[in-house]
């Protein structure tokens, strides 16, 4: 009896091929594509011209010169449309692969495709493995993701700023690469702005609706739920409310948690600045 170690994800894998692929991506996403010369995976955002998130992506090397781009299946068409819009005359071909995307929670230390956002968040497997190894229990992945504090997909991330989505803490934003779409606001926020809200995980005492307002003990709106199950949820929260004595959403009690990957100073200095560029 084989263990079902792989969880099938609602993600797709696109292949970018052509002489201008790396240059094109370098001017398009928030992270430094040249890092793929020394590592197999890279996490990033695609932004609009206002510096707001269109989609989160994972880029992968798989033993060829091609770059494989993983994104949410639900927002695939929107993402491809954005990519094509900026391609112009660059020599880049985009195609969808037949490979499915799977999550492995406990990969070996030498696994080639460990999650580039947070090393403790498993790895990806691509292809069409034996059915005996596949679990359809996607909710197990979603629960783990909520517990870890990692948001995914346009449903959770669209229109947020990269730092509100913790892009600076999850290795998704380079602050010293060249220009890219939405770079001006991102750079200004990193060096001179105040980041007052971030996505955080919460323990909840019941199911809450996605989009529900998060209220503090004075019934002030301090955040919004973006993903939820019966025990865990993700929400964007005003950091000054992290230690509020009472947080609720849909009259369900919430407890904000500090993710393992979030430095203490992000929550300690929330009334001034909370960027990694702070000393």
From TrEMBL:
Localization: Mitochondrion
One GO cellular component term noted in the UniProt record for this chain: mitochondrial matrix
Domain of life: Eukaryota
Record-annotated GCVT N-terminal domain positions: 15-101
Main location: mitochondrion
Keywords: Mitochondrion, Transit peptide
InterPro entries reported in the protein's UniProt record: CAF17_C, GCVT_N, TrmE/GcvT-like, YgfZ/GCV_T_CS, YgfZ/GcvT
GO biological-process terms attached to the record: iron-sulfur cluster assembly
Domain CAF17 C-terminal, chain residue ranges per copy: 196-263
Protein name: Uncharacterized protein
Organism: Caenorhabditis remanei
């Amino acid at each position: 009896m084989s263990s079902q170690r792989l969880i099938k994800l609602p993600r797709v894998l696109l292949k970018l091929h052509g002489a201008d692929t790396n240059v094109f991506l370098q001017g398009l996403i928030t992270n430094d594509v040249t890092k793929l010369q020394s590592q197999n995976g890279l996490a990033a955002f695609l932004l609009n011209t206002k510096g707001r998130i269109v989609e989160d992506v994972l880029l992968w090397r798989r033993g060829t010169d091609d770059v494989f781009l993983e994104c949410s299946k639900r927002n695939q068409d929107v993402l491809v449309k954005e990519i094509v819009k900026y391609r112009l005359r660059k020599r880049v071909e985009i195609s969808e692969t037949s490979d499915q995307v799977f999550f492995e929670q406990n990969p070996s230390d030498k696994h080639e495709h460990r999650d580039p956002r947070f090393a403790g968040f498993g790895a990806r497997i691509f292809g069409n493995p034996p059915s005996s190894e596949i679990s359809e229990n996607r909710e197990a992945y979603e629960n783990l993701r909520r517990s870890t504090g990692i948001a995914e997909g346009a449903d959770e991330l669209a229109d947020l700023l990269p730092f509100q989505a913790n892009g600076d803490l999850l290795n998704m934003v380079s602050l010293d690469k060249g220009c890219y779409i939405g770079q001006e606001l991102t750079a200004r926020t990193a060096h001179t702005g105040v980041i007052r809200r971030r996505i955080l995980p919460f323990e909840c005492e019941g199911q809450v609706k996605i989009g529900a307002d998060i209220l503090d003990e004075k019934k002030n709106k301090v955040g919004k739920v973006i993903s939820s199950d019966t025990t865990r949820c993700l929400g964007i929260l005003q950091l000054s409310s992290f230690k509020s004595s009472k947080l609720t959403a849909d009259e369900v009690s919430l407890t904000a948690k500090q993710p393992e990957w979030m430095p203490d100073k992000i929550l300690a200095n929330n009334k001034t600045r909370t960027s990694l560029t702070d000393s």
